[in-house]
Amino acid sequence: MRFSINPEMATQEVQPNETLTNLKAESDTLKTKLEDERAKLHDVELHQVAEKVDGLGQFIMKTRRTLKGHGNKVLCMDWCKDKRRIVSSSQDGKVIVWDAFTTNKEHAVTMPCTWVMACAYAPSGCAVACGGLDNKCSVYPLSLDKNENLAAKKKSVAMHTNYLSACSFTNSDMQILTSSGDGTCALWDVESGQLLQSFHGHAADVLCLDLAPSETGNTFVSGGCDKKANVWDMRSGQCIQSFETHESDINSVRYYPSGDAFASGSDDATCRLYDLRADREVAIYSKESIIFGASSVDFSLSGRLLFGGYNDYTINVWDVLKGTRVSILFGHENRVSTLRLSPDGTAFCSGSWDHTLRVRDRGYHLEPVTSATVCLILVSSSSCLSLMPVPSPFYFIRTASFITFGP
Amino acid sequence: MQDPDMGVKMRNQRLLITVIPHAMTGNDVIEWLIQKYNITEEEARHLGGLLVQYGYIYPLRDPRSLLLRSDDSPYRFQTPYFWTSSRWPASELDYAIYLAKKNIRKQGELVDYEKENYSILHKRINHTWDFVVMQAREQLRASKQRRKADRIVLECQEQAYWLINKPCPGAFDVLDLGPERCNVLSSRVALIEHSRRALGRNRVKSSICLESFMKYSEQYLHHDPIMSGCLPSNPWISDDTSHWTINTDMVGTPTRLRVERWSFSFMELLNDSMGRREFMIYLEKEFSAENLCFWVACEDLRHGESSKIILKVEEVYKNFLAPGAARWVNIDSKTMERTLEGIKRPHRFIMDDAQMHIYFLMKKDSYPRYLKSELYKNMLAKAIVPQETKKSVFPFMRRQRHSSPSPAMVTQATEDDGKAKGAGPTGTSSTTNSQI
């Protein structure tokens, strides 16, 4: 594994009497000082401020669509701006574009590499970008001509020296931001394949990135195996803020809808919220019974809910303000590798190593039983009715009556 | 990789004295998890099941089926020696010794895939095969000297370990972890630089920052479909795409929620192409439309093709910045000077300062006045509030799920017509000619 040269290291003049121990001592002192400075302005905790807000109670989430078609682990997915189409990529090199609403597959491309860990939909909806173990990010324009081989029009845009972990278009189809196992992020011009800016500062593989929704639209955050989440200025390539409180690899980062904060999910089984103006971590979302890493996170539209996909095959839904968990979702049969909210917030999609993608949203108290559901009704000790689809012919309701949920 | 935090804490359990000591029932495990972590039975079963799959607990009856049964099936804790977190990845040599032992102990005990693995290993590490066989014999001899109970326990533990580390082909491989990640040493000098910079930055008090999250969540509560539902219905639930059709860019009358959202922030107004259009109409009345046009042109420059940068910078200069320009924008002299200087060596960010200046000008001045204007108020008044769709009483009559034209297709059509590229039906494209 090659370690890319840090330009700062190269140009910095090291005094002859500065030994490694001196440097270590200095950097540790500065770090402590920084923590103290940050702590000075930390006058209240998030859950304290959130006391005056109503609690959410338990949420029921239901799977509305299951997308089957990948023959192997689904690694990444992204929504189209039209709110219903999805692109997903998998371990065997397949990239599929679906109309998630009808569950029809619209396009399929086979990449020449395996482990396609990154894929993104272009803002115009006319192209998709993907990459993985080939160390590249390629853009495929989507053609509706059934006879046309999509792979023929493929354009290689990004080149890294290690695997591609994440990619995202910026505000247009013309630029792509990538992150890689070589420890760097980079901004590319799609048309020419030219490198516009590179971002050095992570000390290990960079695993994820997200673009800021801010007014000035110039920053993005990345997370890596060095347990750090860095905020970058796209223009200058500078790292403007850095957060290091996770205890293990950061698998996913996502901005809070207002752009003032971001959440991260890590192998240390926690998700955390970092406020950019306060310049510190402000919340940890964890539970003793959650011992597997979080692989992907996203917020609901209002930022009140944080969805986390975990390596124990579940999705935990957190109340961002109170710090409590409002729901745990089962259904996937292997780890959840990717999770994104749809552009208008009506649903969220999760992709898993069990080869499927599921689109889910809220279930309500009164919902008709569809003919596709064969149900087992359980009356638990707290006299609350729960509904579980089970392939068992024991008890099933097949009438047009409404089933009420509990309190 | 295998995160050390995943280690299971030692716990108190009920001891069932059977032939095999220190066993517990599946039910016990689940009960304990529910108690200790205050979780539901479903979650406890799931978590317990994972512990079995990863080899921290193994079943005594039917060891090849790695499931946690919530009845009185007996289970045991795996010894830490064989924990996945301490002995991973499994060594080939160890596996060879294990298979050799099985083979020696009872001919024909090896299962098909084990036989295959055995012969593959035999070929691959043939040079140390004598060692393997010798070790296997030694271990078998040592185990014969143990008490029967202990011997059975050790055999079970070992078998459980190998069932997980070398699973039957086609079975669920729980240790499939994905491509390797590396961890490289950090650069101290860069860290010091960074910490120094960070110490100098301005920070805001937590109480102020956190208050803003409260406010934001509250403000957007009714706009969040997962929190509050959406009208007329959530397309994913009802299979009815009305919600999407009444919120397209080109719709005649917008919904009330949409128009309300324009008042939340200037960015919300600009991000919605209809909002932007309305704002433009307002600015035209105020004779300050050039500001928005300039902003749009700058966005186009920033996010457009690299090859067109020089051309676009010239256009922007000609239309907005040159003395006597048709749509001259009023920026302060210092910014103007800096920008004009920079135009001599054009790049995509050259207009940033000027663009920022105009953006904040609009935000502080025109935007608040727009929200108070008759134009906006009328828009809000005639905005529709869709009726909530009554949930169908006859569930079998599921709606047809209609497909929609792909954004790619629409663009192709416009391309064929020779119109501007990139003006998809849902794109918030900033091409100057199509919107204004």
TrEMBL record, chain A:
Domain of life from the UniProt record = Eukaryota
Enumerate the Pfam families for this protein.
WD40_Gbeta
Give the keywords, sorted.
Repeat, Transducer, WD repeat
Q: Is-annotated flag, keyword Nucleotidyltransferase? A: no
Question: InterPro entries recorded for this chain?
Answer: G-protein_beta_1-5 (IPR016346), WD40/YVTN_repeat-like_dom_sf (IPR015943), WD40_G-protein_beta-like (IPR001632), WD40_PAC1 (IPR020472), WD40_repeat_CS (IPR019775), WD40_repeat_dom_sf (IPR036322), WD40_rpt (IPR001680)
Biological-process GO terms, alphabetical: signal transduction
Q: Where are the WD repeats?
A: 67-108, 157-198, 199-242, 243-284, 296-328, 329-361
**Does the keyword Electron transport feature in the UniProt annotation?**
no
Q: What PANTHER family is this protein classified in?
A: GUANINE NUCLEOTIDE-BINDING PROTEIN BETA G PROTEIN BETA
Q: Of which family is this protein a member?
A: Belongs to the WD repeat G protein beta family.
Q: How does it assemble?
A: May interact with RGS9; this interaction stabilizes both proteins and increases RGS9 GTPase-activating protein (GAP) activity, hence accelerating the deactivation of D(2) dopamine receptor-mediated signaling.
Protein's name according to its UniProt entry: Guanine nucleotide binding protein (G protein), beta 5a
To which species is this protein native?
Oncorhynchus mykiss
TrEMBL record, chain B:
Domain DEP, first and last residues per copy: 4-79
Tell me one GO biological process term.
G protein-coupled receptor signaling pathway
CDD domains referenced in this protein's UniProt entry, alphabetically: DEP_RGS7-like, GGL
Kindly state which keywords UniProt assigns to this record, in alphabetical order. Signal transduction inhibitor
* One term of GO molecular function: GTPase activator activity
Disordered, as annotated region: 397-436
**Stored Pfam families:** DEP (PF00610), G-gamma (PF00631), RGS (PF00615), RGS_DHEX (PF18148)
* One GO CC term, this protein: plasma membrane
What are the residue boundaries of the RGS domain, all occurrences included?
A: 265-380
List the biased-composition ranges (Polar residues).
403-413, 426-436
- Which top-rank group of organisms is this from? Eukaryota
Protein name stated in the entry: Regulator of G protein signaling 11
Which species is listed as the source?
Oncorhynchus mykiss (Rainbow trout)
